[in-house]
Design brief:
Layout (H helix, E strand, L loop, with lengths): L9 H16 L3 E7 L8 E7 L10 E7 L6 E4 L1 H9 L3 E2 L1 H22 L1
Parallel strand pairs: 1-5
Antiparallel strand pairs: 1-2, 2-3, 3-4
Length: about 120
């Protein structure tokens, strides 16, 4: 009855610790929205964060914001930061992908009209 702890080979312990540390080092980064508005007044930040973290957790980087209550909805994105995270393998959520697409279209449209 005194065998409360199972004896484990030293090499197995090293493999176990290596596996757990590997999971913590290489987490997937996602670009998604974080709600920061009051009740019935949504306001969102576009952030880069670990995929396993809750919505209100600390973000690795703030890329911009989205205000759906203004007419037209106000979207501001720092494309340099967004490209930095996307080049490093970050996955954007579907909502953020559509917002980035809208902003890029709007910028191309304004650039064409400013040149003419």
């Amino acid at each position: 009855m005194l065998h409360l702890f199972k004896l484990v080979d030293f090499r197995q312990k090293i493999r176990y610790y290596h596996r757990t540390s590997y999971k913590t080092w290489f987490k997937m980064i996602t670009i998604r929205l974080m709600r920061i508005g009051a009740k019935k007044k949504p306001f969102y930040r576009i952030i880069a964060i670990d995929s396993e973290r809750p919505r209100e957790s600390k973000a690795k980087d703030i890329l911009g914001y989205y205000d759906p209550l203004k007419e037209p909805p106000e979207i501001k994105v720092d494309f340099e930061k967004a490209n930095y995270w996307l080049e490093r393998g970050a996955q954007a959520s579907k909502t953020v992908q559509s917002l980035l697409h809208k902003v890029s279209k709007r910028e191309k449209f304004s650039d064409q009209h400013s040149n003419t």
